[in-house]
Amino acid sequence: MAVAQHYGMPTPLLDFTTEPDVAAFFASDTGSRPRPKQTACILCLNRATFEQSWEDLNARYRADSGHDLVRIVDIDVQNLWRLHAQSGLFIDMRVDANLFEMFSHMLHIYFPLPSQHDAKLNDKYYPKNKSHVELLLDQHFLIETYDGREAQLEAIFDSVIKVGDLGSLGNEGAFNEAQLPEVHPSWSEATLAPWKIEPNEVYDVTTSTEIHVLTIDTISDPNSAAASIHAQVMTVLDKSNARNRLGDSWEVRDQAGTLVYENEGDIDDSTRPLGEVVQLLFDGMRFKPYEDAEIASAIANYVTLNCFPSWQTMTEWWGSITGVELDGGSVRARGFCGGPTLIDALRLDFVELLTPDALAEFEAEGISAALSFLIDPRRLFEFHKFRRMFAEQVIPTTALVRVEGYVLHYNIADVRVFGLS
After folding, report:
1. What was the pLDDT predicted at 121?
2. What is the DSSP secondary structure assignment for residue 394, as one 8-state letter?
3. CB atoms within 10 A of CB 364
4. What's the whole-model pTM score?
């Protein structure tokens, strides 16, 4: 319920904080210009007095129902940074508001509303950066809007990603003995174990933060620009404890020092500064066992593809381009990979597993045939090559396409389906 409360879902919990500055921030955050002499109010509780006042009522109610009418809830949700930043705790209140106030002995502190809300404080109490739990919550909330998103995807792409029956992961008839291949040994439990680790990170608003500014020369060429961005990201990652500096943020500026936005600089309601998406990429990849160079490549490729003609640039980098779809962890995504890279990532014994007819089709059509025969990446690809392709091509291009808005897929251990778009 604590997680639900901090994401706007209805619960019987009331938000409180142990920090006066947090209380003052939310009391004065009206969302509109205050009227002259308008005041805000902070409600203060003395914990001992509060609990003593409710002791008798709680005891009688507990005897009948098994739980208290009102109670203070101290909880530490691992990796819920919004709760950490707000020094939050809750009151579980199951009574009328008037009765609650009557027995709680709250002190009311009134103060004049400031003429202008300090927007910089929003970042302090609503961290821009996202923990792995908050990224997973973003994925979970996609489920609630599935029907609407499906209609939107159909309007954009004329078709939608259909995962289908996960019991059917390919065309058995394309393989010897009419059986799909077993999972490749490179996808062993030991290999996947580090990808399933859930770190415990506490967001500390007192920790110093840094803005990492990436500069891209938009009048150069894509290769030079990508190499420069890659080197700049590696410089950041070479710093001590770089992946664990939870409050750092990113900006992307051009050679003139101007902020660069998505869609090659067109600023409208649907675009964001590239640095915000770089932040999403970094947050999503930093706590997974990607190599530093893979994180740098994902960011460099994303930024460069935004600043130069993307299809032409992809073709120059990766050869013939194949559109791919993937599904896993509640996220559907569309992106692009180089055909030669996909072929190279196939398991080495792939052709030996095909029937003669399927082999002839594969030799004629290449990777398109392979991806139509089998859509389970664990059975189709060698893990380490797939991992590198995922970091360097899939993640940056799915960030470009953004089928699911700004919810992206980072964990290859969760990918259940990988096939043609």
Report:
1. 74
2. I
3. 9
4. 0.76
Give the mean pLDDT of the chain. Answer: 85
Instruction: Write phi, then psi, for 352 (nearest 5 degrees).
Output: -70, -20
At residue 16's C-alpha, the angle toward residues 141 and 26, to 5°, is: 80
Measured from the Cβ of residue 211, the count of other Cβ atoms closer than 10 Å reads 9
* Tally of CB atoms within 10 A around 120: 7
* C-alpha to C-alpha distance for 251 and 301, rounded to whole angstroms: 15
pLDDT digits (tens, 9 = 90+) for 273-323: 999 999 989 989 998 999 999 999 999 999 999 999 999 999 999 999 999
Query: Residue 337's closest CA among 402, 382, 283, 386?
Result: 386
**Phi and psi (nearest 5°) for 386?**
-65, -40
- Longest Cα–Cα distance of the chain, Å, equals 84
Tokens of 65: 């129902």
Cα 116 from Cα 311, distance rounded (Å): 45
Average pLDDT over residues 377-400: 96
Query: Measured between alpha carbons, how far is 166 from 416 in angstroms, rounded to an integer?
Result: 8
What pairs with residue 252 in β-bridges? 214
- Helix-strand-coil split of the chain, %, nearest 5: 50, 15, 35
Look-up: residue for tokens 């980098």? 317
Rg (CA), the chain: 26
